[in-house]
Amino acid sequence: MSKFFFKGRIEKREDYEGKGFNTKRAEKLGTEKFPLSLTVVTEARKTEIEAILEENSLYGDIAVNEEAEENIVELEVVLNKPKTMVLEKTPNRNDPCSCGSGKKYKKCCG
After folding, report:
1. How many angstroms separate the CA atoms of 85 and 30, rounded?
2. Helix (H) or strand (E) holding 72
3. Which residues, 6+ apart, have CB-to-CB distance to 1 below 8 Å?
4. CA-CA distance, 64 to 40, in Å (whole number)?
């Protein structure tokens, strides 16, 4: 019997574009494509911010506006990224806990 007379459910083929490595990921903030948008009050502060950007090899659009508040939140977020905490090894059950409570690991954090 040919496939044209099959009355069951025909499964669609999976599309492989949505699986695996993401080649279309978002660019990082502070690059040439996505510069930081910063607002400062004075020209002197603008030169300070430009020095910080150059020191950390970042790109940013700095606007000087004396009436608006200073807004450098994006720069602070990029500079103060949280670091991932990595332990050397996982403690055994009967070892003292790494949090400093004095209890055994199995009774405290395990």
Report:
1. 25
2. none
3. none
4. 5
> Apex CA 53: angle with CA 48 and CA 59, to 5°?
130
Per residue in 1-45, pLDDT (tens digit) is: 555 666 666 666 666 555 666 666 677 888 888 899 999 999 999
Question: The tokens of 56 are what?
Answer: 């950390």
Q: Provide the CB-side half-sphere exposure for 100 (13 A, CA).
A: 0
C-alpha distances out from residue 34 to 39, 69, 71, 86, 94, Å: 16, 22, 17, 30, 50
Q: Taking phi first (over 0 means left), then psi (-120 to 50 degrees means alpha), and beta for anything else, what does residue 30 get?
A: left
81 C-beta neighbours (distance < 10 Å), count: 7
